[in-house]
Design goal:
The complex is a heterotrimer. Chain B is an all-alpha fold. Chain B is 66% helix and 1% strand. Chain B has a two-stranded antiparallel ribbon. Chain C folds into 3 domains: 2-76 and 87-117, no CATH class; 134-241, Immunoglobulin-like, CATH 2.60.40.420; 261-358, Sandwich (Immunoglobulin-like). Chain C contains 10 helices and 12 strands.
Chain lengths: 208, 629, 363
């Protein structure tokens, strides 16, 4: 692979992310990693459902009435939007339009940071109400499930930022195209997991 | 940075192994460290059998005994059997499919070092306040009640080494999917490659639940969470589910590669292609698939109710069918063949009755009401040792003899190999057959002592005597390794003379770039086909001789794993008020981890090329690369 | 189950073989000498599955031995290249179908028995007068001892379960601390004792335990529960219904104070004025369940000290002096803590032992 090879939108391959063997390997390997991540979150969800509203006798907080639904709804919309903006970024990556890609990634990161900020605010709010991590089995399961997702968001953001800074001077080539592609794929995965969290934790919590 | 340089000092060799990304060297690292952990686990087993040699013995105290059984089980499963098998996968699978290396050489190295540091971390518990003592299953209520840091060592150590294994699994899957030589269709892959494939898929899907369970355990013990604290609404049965959703596939992660090794051996030493290759492949896939649906048969006595017990009982019985298919296909492979009783073949032949015995007791335990009697008794100890020792360990010993020439270029002594075999085989049956009856006579497992008045004395004494024979067998094997290495008689490509698959078409040990030209695969047992057609060049090649692209070595995997190792000490002592430095250590460790990840991702590392000229020079020196004997 | 019982002759043969191989084992604890319906059902399943599996082993062994004898290279010569057979669909079908049939033979009694042994619907049924029709025992496990409460009778005992023969006895199992498992091998399979939920099952006791060499059945903890897991034994006395009713009646009476002088001294020491043993250990069968230590109302009638030591005054004294030495990890305080920082004197130990031995409801 030659890093110095200059591509134009005309010479740029249709699927730059799988144009090299390394790219193909990363592509499949990453999907497999997402399979493992899916099992991880499945285990966390199953545990959450088993421990939902379980705690010491007379515990104060249960899933009904605790959650700040409007805030969480706003967070959901923000994260969904960031997924969309990352789609635009990859669209421009495939067109070999580096500047546009960087710009859309920038917007994605911005939305992600806002999401993460709101989540930190949300946790802080619950803790101030007295709903701490060590309160009950329910609180541990809640914070661990949602917090694991939050950690994934943090990692996804760091990945985006590292890629953007690292490649700001180098532009796009078949060596870094798979990296951008996979980071975006990761971001979609995080988004999908959040949709499940929103449904299973927040909406089902509010209904019960 | 060309690796073609020849003579090296000791320091350079060590540096080479610390930084290597070559699958063959990583295989050797896995084999050696797995072997060392195997010896440690074996030593623990001997101490256990000495303690149980007679009624009311006081050789080990009650607490120490529990640490011993926990570490024996954990070490043997996670740090000995699995790494040694991963070693064989690394050594052989890429050669079998004609690949240059695995898909992610860097991650391969990372996987090894994570396993290695995880294993070291776990074993350091012996010297730092006590080993884990809640059994290798680490059931939650007992684990939370355990006072020493042993359980923390267990949870953190297994988390680290589990990440390593998961990385290895993904790596093998991608390698097999993407990097097969031209003509190597899925249904032409050697059976060892197939079992590697399925076992890797099981690793991929089975390890995350364990990791999640271990994290719950860590959070409960170190950060005050309440997943398993019953008074706080927790539920200890969640641990049992998570552990066995991992734990049952784990059994197949171990046994499937063992099946693969034996499949190779039966074909090679019967000079006959595998009977019912297609059936064997589908049986492998079915076993892997069912492996995820039967975990609750480890929990028949938990009180899940008759419906769950009946369903899981029936699901478990079904697994006997594909396993039976395998046994009969192996028997028909040697039927009508020309059997040469080399050491690997003797192990393979001995495996059949041993494993059938372990299999039938497995079906007996699938009968849920009968299992109420057998569960957690010595019957189950006998059963899983018949499966793991009679299946996996025999495969490992067979594999060591079979692949030793391919990995090291020398042949282990057949004579000493036979001595090891007979000691080990007789010792194994002596130790464990009698334990079925101890269980039926009412002896629970995991007891550090037993009273003289319960009718168990004689059988326990016999069992301990058998263990001694197994130990002698292993010592003879070590002697064999030393003698072989000192003698250093080099062998050619196909030292067993009846090799059938691609790994026997390449020098022993292979050059670091594997095949100079990627071979063209013309059918199942492709090397055998070429030999039968009298191909003097060894193989037909798919490409002309040309430049080869190779990855650079890197110390970063070692440093990353070291970072996790350091961070784990911070997490371990996090709740000790007497140790104010824990947070700092945790942060430093994570900084090392993420810092080296960042360095890796910021630096362009494109590897290097071996030019055609260098390659031709090397071929002249190495001679045999073309594959003729 | 009937399917499993058709071929009695084979079973008799297999039984003889198994018993021969096993060296019989002890009647008090061997699963091979079942002494109740549950253990008998499970034993029958053992015989049935052993028979089926023996058939499998014989088939494999025959093919195996023939193959390694007939097809040795030393016999066939070095140059022989065998025919490269691909496989046979017919054979694959046979060795798929036959095991499925064999498994079906096992599956039917398995499912039947799984539901049968879990059937506790009769547990709460009552007769016209509102009394329960069958005996229920609440079992609670503690680090490393067992409490048996008879809720209907209002009595509690520990370490030695007393049950009537020839009727179904129902059990509620729960743990007070960590997970244990309740197992009386010769009476029936085990059931886990979880900290979070009550597990229920039943057992039947066919034979009076007085007929055994040791006079009791042996019960075990079958789930690793810490250092003294191996010593968490209990004993079972099965008596006929009449004797059981007598036993219940005398358990329900208040115990009489000790009559003999040494025992009287022991009783004083045992009480609140002395070492306050009574703070943890009740000595009346009608005391509430859930005390920190085992109920000692039947101590004199017991078969063992602490579940596993021979039932002598000497062993009682040893135990009181240093419980940790004999059962590491148990929760009983050591002698010094109980006795204001000093060890018990020899006289005090004698007195305590005499008093404990005098606690009896059987006489």
């Amino acid at each position: 692979m030659d890093l110095n090879k200059r591509y134009t939108p005309q010479s740029w391959p249709d699927h730059p992310e799988t144009a090299t063997l390394e790219g193909k390997n990363k592509f499949i390997g990453f999907w497999l990693l997402l399979a493992a991540e899916t099992v991880t979150f499945a285990s966390l969800f199953a545990t959450y459902l088993a421990l939902k509203d379980r705690g010491p006798s007379g515990m104060e907080f249960t899933s009904s009435g605790l959650f700040e639904l409007p805030l969480v709804f706003a967070m959901t919309m923000i994260l969904l939007t960031s997924s969309l903006t990352s789609v635009y970024a990859i669209h421009h990556m495939k067109n070999h339009n580096f500047k546009a890609m960087q710009a859309w990634l920038g917007i994605t990161v911005l939305l992600g940071v806002v999401f993460l900020g709101l989540e930190i605010y949300e946790f802080n709010h619950y803790v101030h109400l007295g709903f701490g991590y060590t309160n009950s089995a329910f609180s541990a399961a809640f914070y661990t499930l949602v917090g694991t997702h939050g950690a994934h968001v943090l990692f996804g953001l760091s990945w985006f930022i590292a890629l953007m800074i690292r490649n700001s001077k180098r532009g796009l080539n078949t060596y870094n195209a798979p990296k951008f592609y996979l980071a975006a794929l990761y971001w979609h995965f995080i988004d999908v997991v959040w949709v499940f969290i929103f449904t299973v934790v927040y909406l089902m919590g509010a209904i019960s | 940075m060309s690796s073609l340089a020849q003579k090296k000092g000791v320091g350079a060799i060590i540096w080479d192994y610390l930084t290597t990304v070559d699958h063959k060297k990583i295989a050797i690292l896995y084999l050696i460290s797995g072997g060392i952990f195997f010896l440690i686990g074996g030593l623990e087993a001997m101490l256990i059998r000495i303690q149980l040699m007679k009624a009311g013995n006081d050789f080990l105290s009650a607490g120490l005994y529990n640490e011993m059984i926990t570490m024996h089980g954990t070490t043997m499963i996670f740090l000995a059997a699995m790494p040694i098998l991963l070693g064989f996968m690394n050594a052989v699978m890429p050669l079998q499919i004609g690949a240059r290396d695995v898909a992610f050489p860097f991650l391969n190295s990372l996987g090894f070092w994570l396993f290695f540091f995880g294993g070291i971390f776990l074993n350091l518990s012996w010297f730092m306040g006590g080993a884990p003592d809640a059994g290798w299953t680490n059931y939650a209520s007992l684990a939370l009640a355990s006072e020493s840091h042993g359980i923390d060592f267990y949870a953190l150590g297994l988390t680290i080494s589990g990440f390593g294994t998961l990385i290895g699994g993904i790596n093998f899957l991608v390698t097999i999917i993407n990097m097969r030589a031209p003509g190597m269709t899925y249904m032409r892959m050697p059976l060892f490659t197939w079992t590697t494939f399925v076992a890797s898929a099981l690793i991929l899907l089975a390890f995350p639940p364990l990791t999640v369970g271990l994290f719950f355990m860590i959070f409960d013990r170190m950060f005050g969470a309440n997943f398993f604290v019953v008074e706080m609404g927790g539920n200890t049965i969640i641990w049992e589910h998570l552990f066995w959703i991992f734990g049952h596939p784990e059994v197949y992660i171990l046994i499937l590669p063992a099946f693969g090794i034996f499949s190779e051996i039966f074909a090679i030493f019967s000079r006959k292609r595998l009977f019912g290759y297609t059936a064997l492949v589908f049986a492998t896939i079915l076993i892997g698939f069912y492996g995820f649906m039967v975990w609750a048969h480890h929990m028949f006595t938990v009180g899940l109710g008759p419906t769950a017990n009946a369903v899981f009982a029936l699901a478990t019985m079904i697994i006997a069918v594909p396993t039976g298919i395998k046994i009969f296909n192996w028997l028909l492979t040697i039927w009508g063949g020309s059997i040469k009783f080399t050491v690997p073949m003797v192990y393979a032949v001995a495996f059949i009755p041993s494993f059938v015995a372990g299999g039938v007791t497995g079906v007996m335990q699938a009968i849920a009401p009968l299992d109420y009697q057998l569960h957690d008794s010595y019957f189950i100890v006998a059963h899983f040792h018949y499966v793991i020792v009679g299946g996996v360990v025999l495969a490992i010993l067979a594999g060591v003899h079979l692949y030793w020439p391919k990995m090291f270029g020398t042949m282990l002594s057949e004579k000493l190999g036979m001595v090891t075999f007979w000691f080990f085989f007789i010792g194994f049956h002596l130790t464990f057959f009698i334990q079925h009856f101890l269980g039926l006579l009412g002896m629970p497992r995991r007891v550090y002592t037993f009273g003289a008045d319960q009718g168990w004395d004689l059988f326990n004494a016999i069992s301990s005597a058998g263990a001694l024979l197994m130990a002698i067998g292993v010592i003879v094997l070590l002697v064999n390794v030393v003698i072989t290495t000192v003698k250093n008689v080099r062998v050619g490509n196909d030292p067993w003379e009846d090799g059938r698959t691609l790994e026997w078409a390449i020098p022993s040990p292979p050059p670091f770039y594997n095949f100079a030209q990627t071979p063209l695969v013309r059918g199942l047992d492709t090397y055998w086909i070429e030999k039968m057609e009298g191909n003097k060049k060894g193989m037909v090649y798919a490409e002309p001789l040309g430049d080869i692209h190779m990855p650079n070595g890197s110390i970063i995997p070692f440093i990353m794993s070291f970072g996790m190792f350091v961070a784990s000490f911070g997490a371990l002592y996090f709740q000790d008020d007497s140790k104010p430095w824990t947070l700092a250590v945790l942060i430093i460790g994570l900084a090392i981890l993420f810092g080296s990840m960042l360095v890796r991702s910021l630096k362009d590392d494109l590897g290097f090329h071996i030019t055609k000229e260098e390659l031709m020079e090397d071929l002249k020196k190495g001679g045999n690369t073309d594959g003729s004997k | 189950m009937m399917k499993g019982l058709t071929n009695w002759r084979l079973f008799a043969l297999m039984t003889a073989l198994l018993v021969f191989l096993s060296g019989c084992g002890r009647e008090e604890i061997s699963t091979l000498i079942p002494a109740g319906k549950v253990a008998q059902d499970q034993f029958n399943l053992l015989l049935l599955s052993t028979a089926v599996m023996t058939f499998v082993i014989i088939v494999v062994t025959i093919i195996f031995v023939l193959a390694i004898v007939k097809f040795r290279r030393s016999k066939l010569g070095d140059d022989m290249i065998p025919e490269q057979v691909e496989g046979s669909a017919k054979l694959e079908f046979i060795w798929t179908a036959v095991p499925i049939v064999l498994l079906l033979i096992l599956a039917v009694p398995t499912v039947y028995s799984t539901f049968d042994l879990a059937d506790v619907t009769a547990m709460d049924s009552i007769d016209e007068e509102g009394n329960q029709t069958s005996l229920t025992v609440n079992v609670t496990s503690y680090l490393y001892w067992w409490e048996f409460e008879y809720p209907e009778q209002g009595i509690v005992t520990a370490q030695e379960l007393v049950v009537p023969t020839n009727e179904r006895v129902y059990f509620n199992l729960i743990s007070a601390d960590i997970k244990h498992s309740f197992w009386i091998p010769s009476i029936g399979g085990k059931l886990d004792v979880n900290p979070e939920n009550v597990n229920k099952f039943y057992l039947e006791f066919d034979k009076e335990s007085a007929l055994l060499d040791d006079g009791v059945y042996y019960g075990k903890c079958a789930e690793l529960c810490g250092p003294s897991h191996a010593l968490m034994d209990f004993k079972v006395k099965s008596v006929d219904r009449e004797e059981f009713d007598q036993w219940v009646a005398s358990m329900q009476e208040e115990p009489e104070p000790a009559s003999e002088t040494t025992a009287q001294a022991g009783e004083e020491l045992f009480g609140l004025e002395g070492a306050s043993c009574i703070g943890c250990h009740a000595v009346s069968g009608t005391a509430p369940a859930g005390m920190p230590g085992p109920n000692l109302a039947t101590f004199g009638d017991r078969n063992r000290v602490a579940g596993f030591m021979e039932h002598t005054e000497e062993n009682i004294k040893k135990w009181i002096q240093d419980p940790q030495k004999h059962k590491p990890g148990n929760l009983m305080p050591d002698a010094k803590t109980l006795n204001g920082g000093e060890d018990f004197t020899e006289e005090e130990l004698d007195a305590l032992a005499a008093y404990l031995m005098s606690l009896s409801v059987e006489q």
